[in-house]
Amino acid sequence: MSQFDEAVTRLAREEGGHVLALLAHRFGDLDLADEAVQDALLAAASWEAVPANPAGWLYTVAHNRAVDRLRRAAAERRRLQAASYLITLPEEEEPEMIIERSDVGDEHLRLVLLCCHPALDRDAQVALTLRLVGGLTTPEIAAAYLVPEATLAQRIVRAKRKIRDAGIPLSIPSSLSERVEAVLTVLYLIYNEGYLSRSSAGARVDLVDESIRLTSALASQLPSNAEVLGLLALELYGRARTSSRFVGDQLVLLEAQDRTTWDFAGIVEANQVLASALALEVPGAFQLQAWIASQHANARTAADTDWPAIASAYAQLLELAPSPVVALNRAVAVAMADGAPAGLALLDCVTGLDDYHLYWAARGELLAKAGDPDAAAAALRRARALAANPAEQRHLDRRIAAVSS
Questions:
Q1: In 262-339, where does DSSP find H-type helix?
Q2: Would residue 73 count as lying in a domain?
Q3: Is residue 118 in a domain?
Q4: Residue 138 and residue 212 in one domain
Q5: 253-305: per-residue pLDDT in tens?
Q6: Of 222, 252, 282, which residue constitutes the final position of a domain?
Q7: Number of domains present in the structure of the chain
Q8: Residues 24-35: tens digit of each pLDDT
């Protein structure tokens, strides 16, 4: 990738959503804003030199492309007349501070909230957030989520059409807390897909980084929202351990990871963010998950891990946000604290995870520790049949062979 390609990619990731949000607000048309930004990014691909103010260049060119589209659309002439006063600079003139960060903040937040509108289903929310806010291309999103590109493109088109036809406004809703919960869920899904991707042998670090970037942007707009900070801390803890989770194409479990390769500066940053969240004294599920991650990240060795405290935290999380996956994680933590039989007793009470490979993987490992290799191998084979990630499949193959020997 050339330096210009890298500059354009960075421009799309870091500024595309901001510019799109500003144009959508000014013109009142999400489709027009999206098409104008894409036109401008295509034009940027022919750069012979990177502008001194790439964000200002993108805004000016996208703005002018939007006006050009309005001019060409006779049916939209009245809208052109209403928007014509916005034409201020020709493309060759580059404005100073054409994008004021004080203006971008609210518009960017409006765009994030629009992408996560409750009228859209969760898949559409994820796709729109990555495409419009994150600046990822349709092929990149399709590859990350194992969806055909045409299917993903249609999903985005239908979502934008639903926004247009329903007249969903690009505005901050009166009940912001309800929408923020949906935004956090979408960002967490993006993070999880990056942490252990279904589409590649290892992690999708680009998606992890994108989730961190978007969550950081949200935190800058909502600095007193403890759960936003909690999710950011959780993502930062996971990112700090990325380099040790795979050796070649082999998955390395937490207890076997080389902790000297962890990003300790990243862990310190995560500790600070989590401390800020907890200081707000507004309990939440993401904060609890981040606290659990902090126990792993700050343990110098696997033996230093405070499993009783982690098991207790999972019990709290189960009360706060009950789910079969949380119950599974609690069972594993109890097994580490009190022994495999105690963990298996809790696993026997977990329902709704018959098709979840990690349930069977955990069950297999606990059965092996409890001295039942035949049942362990059967559970691990079930996990292998359900696993999608190639690295997990190879790991399970090794574990099946080990417990069967």
A1: 264-279, 285-297, 307-320, 324-338
A2: yes
A3: yes
A4: yes
A5: 999 999 999 999 999 999 999 999 999 999 999 999 999 999 999 999 999 99
A6: 222
A7: 2
A8: 888 888 889 999
